Structures are given as structure tokens and as C-alpha cells.
Amino acid sequence: MPTKKTPDSRHSEAAGVDTPDKANTNAKLQSLGDVRSDATGQALRTNQGVKIADNQNTLKAGSRGPSLLEDFIMREKITHFDHERIPERIVHARGTGAHGYFQSYGNHSELTKAGFLQDPEKITPVFVRFSTVQGPRGSGDTVRDVRGFAVKFYTDEGNFDLVGNNMPVFFIQDAIKFPDFVHAVKPEPHNEMPTGGSAHDTFWDFVSLVPESAHMVIWAMSDRAVPRSLRMMEGFGVHTFRLINAEGVSSFVKFHWKPSNGVHSVLWDEAQKMAGKDTDFHRRDLREAIESGDYPEWELGVQVVPEADEHKFDFDLLDPTKIIPEELVPVTTLGKMVLNRNPDNFFAEVEQVAFCPGHIVPGIDFSNDPLLQGRLFSYTDTQLSRLGGPNFHEIPINRPVAPNHNNQRDAIHRQTIHKGQAAYEPNSIDGGWPKETPPGAQDGGFESYHERIDAHKVRERSESFSDHFSQARLFFHSMSKTEQQHIIKAYSFELGKVEREYIRERQVNEILANIDLELAAAVAANLGLPAPKAGTVKVPEFKLKHSPALSQMNLPGTVGIKGRKIALLVADGVDGASVDRLTKAFEAHSARVLLLGPSSAPVKTADGKQLKVDASMEGMPSVMIDGLWVPAGKAAHDALANSGLAKHFLLEAYKHLKPMGLAAEGKALLTTLGLKEDKGLLLGDDKKAVESFVAVLKEHRVWDREAAAEAIPA
Ligand code: HDD
């Protein structure tokens, strides 16, 4: 508790006043548990605490008569129910979240005075919310879209929100364009279609008229927009921020999250099917991973640009449509984040969490990126209508672990009961408390970076923001051939859904042709349009021609196949020993092995034992697994060869380039299916075959198979 001071001492002494400690921080990890009651052994009561005798029948005038208005129990229940919904987020409505912690790798005090980045012993609780952008709350998880990657760090010095995406750039350069962009991408106003996607006229109308979107749109047409898992995405703070050390030295930084699981995606056909077969694929995957102890991990890194180097690049650091290629400024890792606890209640935690890029702590500051500057206003503002007023910081998931004493009072849904008379400052009644803390090297009050501004008030875009194509080109040229083909197909699919031909033409001729003529020609061919002969603007030559860090083929992660789902397809007559051998072999790599049968009923092994299955091949279709194996057992192979369900499962897995293995007798099954062995389609269940399978699964898919897989029906 604060010690009483004389009224004229305006500042608290930093030490000893409400200093948060580790116990306080750890308490945050438990705090939601404290406010939750699972009500075991408790009587059913009204909100006013009255015990309820009958929760089945309304009070009536006679058992067949009208209901009585005086039934306060029924009215309270129905009234509460009538108001259960709150507005969903305007964007990023569909999401899921998890708790975890952040731990610094060392003392980064040369960069920042932010305490959570200085002490490797310090465990800082975090809550992360992942989201899609376009779709409403009930939309599919696997649609083509940008993914939100918002992290709330509950630091001892206050909450720090890093509200980023899984792509390092954005569609627009100035926040004033955000409502236009969102109105264009959201379902169209006259018919509320499409749900969860950008393949429609208004989106392409807007982006084809706004060339600054070109870079972000090519990311959105790449495999990054169809992630295999939320655990397999990079995250980016997007804007340039500042880190400030105790001496007041500022460096520009870009924040990066690097997943230990690597960066992996699904194929487009797969993504579309998944949206139907399991709308909740990503939230389920995250929840199951955490439940089974496969805690997802990311390293937090920064690209650091000293203040003096601000203008040394071909692009403007303040332009959010630009990356700093990692080949120019490598990412320095600062620490790691581990997600290790699922929310107990989706609404209380995931739905009510309120992020804001303006939530920063001493040692971190904003840059003048005009998109970031606008965001600083928007997020708090939107919470006023979503969460019903300015007290949303008192909702458990939003409460800082740092104390937050001030003279703000009242307003709707106030939880805190403030004692005392003085809710103003200066005051002498309460000894002048709570008091300001002067800025200082460490533990000081927040101080904005003393940037010198000497300018005219203007509504202008800096000339240094005018190149919209060189980095989109760098991105396309840095992709593998496979990734480039996926991008061409994505543009072709999306523009194919655009009804107005002039919009298709404008995107091809005025945007794609400026990125890359071959890309434009390939998309034009798929749309039946003439290939453009030249771009419409002179694109500056970017010194760097390739950035390998942009291709996810170069981002396999560090944990191999840990947590990957491998299906063993079983049927009556399967060789139990083969099932055991394979299970052990894959589990040794920390993969998750699932036995899938023709139905959910157990199958009988060749030696007559009952073998329980995890699911049927229908219940867990091939799009939900990463690889498969058919264990030994002639009768089981024959049964699979005669099952349309099993054949479809195998062909679809093959089409989606998944690693597959079959015991030696699987040759006949392959012939039935018309499939040939390849690098990732293996025969035999010996150690060598298993190791080859694991090696291919580490590369995620059998990329060499793509041409052969074209012939397989979708
Ligand atoms: Fe935003 C939500 C990310 C630009 C206005 N945004 C929101 C979320 C993420 C982002 C991850 C979901 C947070 C959550 O899980 O609750 N937004 C971004 C990124 C941007 C960006 C990476 C550009 C670099 N956003 C942006 C601009 C504006 C907004 C320019 C307004 C001027 N964003 C919002 C919002 C949302 C939001 C309307 C909707 C719900 C919410 O904030 O809490 O205020």
C-alpha cells in the first residue's frame, strides 16, 4: 500500500509503491480460475441469490392457464438470455485464443528498458487471440484470409499488446482508408455474401483501384493465407515501432514471431473442403495440441534499425506496405512464448479480450506510421460499443497484473469500489495519492520518445510511400516454383469469381503486370484475357532480387514432426503387431497416431483381437491428417480395396501431396487406385520406410508429386 506523504510531494517514489512482483504475475495465471466456479455441490439460485425450487415450469394460473407476470424467476432467466449476445468484432470476428507465458532469453537492456525483456528469470503471462479477418463469428477456420495474431503481455509495468497479423504488411498505408477497405472485403451489403472470403467484386474492385494494396494482396494469394495450423504461422507486428533503452536511445524495430513448428499451409482444394468437413479445424487443432501437452512455441524477434539508419533503405520504414527484408536486417531473437493453457470459457476470455496497439509500456514506443497512428484511436473506441463502456479494462481477461490506480471513476459496469473522498489530483485529503512517477531509467513513469517534429499541418502522403510494386515483385520472385503456381491459381480462382470483366482486366493489367509479366500472363490466360505486354508504371529496381526468408519452403521449424497427425488405416484382418510397430515408431518422433477404421466400431486383428479405433474414415477425413499408413494384413488391405470410403481417403491424401506408406502387400491396393510409388508414397513397414516417411513429413508435403496429382479427381 502507498505510504502517506505530504500533499506537496507530487511524485511517488518508484521503489516501494505498488511494485508488482513475481507472485503477482503468477497470480494472473490463476486469476480467471479464482473468479470461476464450476458450481459442483451448489444449489441453483437466481441472480439475487434466491434458491430455485422448480426450473422446469413457469408460474401459471392453473396448470393449463396463462403464465403470470409475477414470475420473477422466469423473467430474470429469460431477460438475461435475451441479452446474451454482444456485437461481434467488426473485423477479426472469428477467432480463438490461449494462455501462456513469455520468457526473455537474456537481458536486452541495450535495446529497451521494458522490464519483461530484461530478466530471463521473469515469466510474463500472455494471452493470444488468433483470428481470420473477413468472416463473422461462425465462419470457417480454413478460408483464404489473413490471420490475426494478437498477443497481450501482462507485464509488471502494464499491459503490452502486440496486435499483429501472420503477414508482415498491410493493404493500405493510411488509417483513414480502413473503413473503405473493410467495407470492400466484407460480405457485400446487398446480399451478405460471400462468408469468409475475398473472392467477390467489391474486394477486387477496391484493390485493383488502390495499387498500394498490391504487396499485401499477393501475400493473401499465397499459401500464407491458408495455414495448416495456427501453430504453424509466423506473426508480425507489421509497423515499425521504437524500442528505447534506459539512456533514452531509440532504435526502430519490426517485431516477428517465429514458430518452432515451422510455417506450413494446406492446399487450396483442401482448405475449401476443410471449411465444410470441420469448420472449427484451427481452433480444434490449437486446443487439442495444448490439451495433449504439445505446447505451441514462438520466438519473439526484432529487426533493429538504429535511429541514424532510418533513411538508408529503398523504402520508407513508416510505410506499412513494406517489409525490411531479413537479408538486409536479420531478426534478433529476444525470447520465447509458449501457449500452455486453454481458456476455460470462450466468451469470458476469447470474446471479451480487448486488444489495442496503444497499450504499450515504458521502453516501447510508436513510430509515425500513419496506419499505426490511426489504430491507436480505433481499438479503444470499438470496445466502447462491443464491451459496453469504458470499464472494459476491469473484465478479468483484460486486467493488468500491474496495479492501475488513478482518478477515473464510475461509468457503466464499474466493478471497483473506490474508497475515499478524493478522486482528483492534486489533492491534500488523500495525501496527494495516487501520484505521478517521474520518468526514469528504470521503473519510471511512461515517457514518449522526444522526437523532434518540425512540419506543416498537411493532408499528404509522403513521396517515399509511392512505390507499390517492387516488394510485391520481390515476394513473387522469392517463391519456389510450387508457391508461384499456387499464387497464380489463387488469383485466377478469386478473379474468376468476379462478375465484372472490367475489374478482372484492371487487376491483371494495372496491378499484376506491374508486379511480374509472367504472373499477369498466366492469370490472364486462366481468365481468357489477353496477356498484358507491359506494366503501366515504372517500377523502381529493388537492389535485392530474392529474399529466401519469404519462402515458407525455407521455414521448416525446429521440432520435426512433433504433434503431426498420422492416420493408420485399419480394417478387419489388420496385423496388430504392424499397428504396434508403426505407432511406436511415429510416437518416438512425438507425432500423434490415430487409428481410423471403416466405421467407429472396433476392428478385428488377424489374430482375432479387438482393436479400438479413434474415428471412422468418414468422421476424420483425409483433409484432417498430415500423413497416413496402411499397416500389414492381407485381409485388411482387401477390405480397403473394396471400400469406396477408403479408396477416396487414399486418393484424396495422394492428391493433397501427403506422405503415405503401405505395408508390402499394399502393392495391390496401389494398382487398384492407379497410384505409383514416389518419394513420399512408400511400400513396406520396415524401419527404413518409416524413416523416409518421417523425412518427407518434415518437408510437410511431397512437392514433387504435384504434377502427377493433377490427374486425380478432386
Ligand atoms: Fe485491426 C481488430 C490487426 C489495421 C481497427 N486488428 C484487429 C485484430 C487484429 C488486427 C489481429 C483482432 C484483435 C483481437 O483478436 O481481438 N489491424 C491489424 C493489423 C493492422 C490493422 C495487423 C495493420 C497493420 N485495424 C487496422 C486499422 C484499423 C483497425 C488501420 C482502424 C483504423 N482492428 C480494428 C478494430 C478491431 C480490429 C475495428 C476490431 C475489433 C477490435 O479492433 O477489437 O478496432
Structure in words:
This protein has 714 residues and is an alpha/beta fold. It has four domains: 1-27, no CATH class; 62-207 and 231-398, Beta Barrel (Catalase HpII,  Chain A, domain 1); 468-554, Catalase, four-helical domain (Hemocyanin, N-terminal domain, Up-down Bundle), CATH 1.20.1370.20; 565-709, 3-Layer(aba) Sandwich (Rossmann fold). 28% of the residues lie in helices and 14% in strands. The protein has 19 helices and 18 strands. The protein has helices at residues 22-35, 72-82, 178-185, 201-209, 214-220, 268-277, 281-291, 346-351, 370-386, 470-478, 481-496, 501-515, 517-527, 576-587, 634-641, 644-655, 666-673, 687-698, 706-709, and strands at residues 95-104, 124-132, 147-155, 158-165, 235-236, 241-244, 250-259, 297-306, 332-341, 364-366, 565-569, 592-597, 603-604, 610-611, 615-616, 627-630, 660-662, 681-683. The strands form three sheets. Strands 1, 2, 3, 4, 5, 6, 7, 8, 9 and 10 form a ten-stranded antiparallel beta sheet that branches. Strands 15-12-11-16-17-18 form a six-stranded parallel beta sheet, sandwiched between helices. The longest helix has 17 residues, at 370-386. The chain is globular. Mean pLDDT is 94; it is low at 1-26. The protein binds CIS-heme D hydroxychlorin gamma-spirolactone (HDD). The site of CIS-heme D hydroxychlorin gamma-spirolactone (HDD) has 26 residues, from β2, β3, β4 and α9.
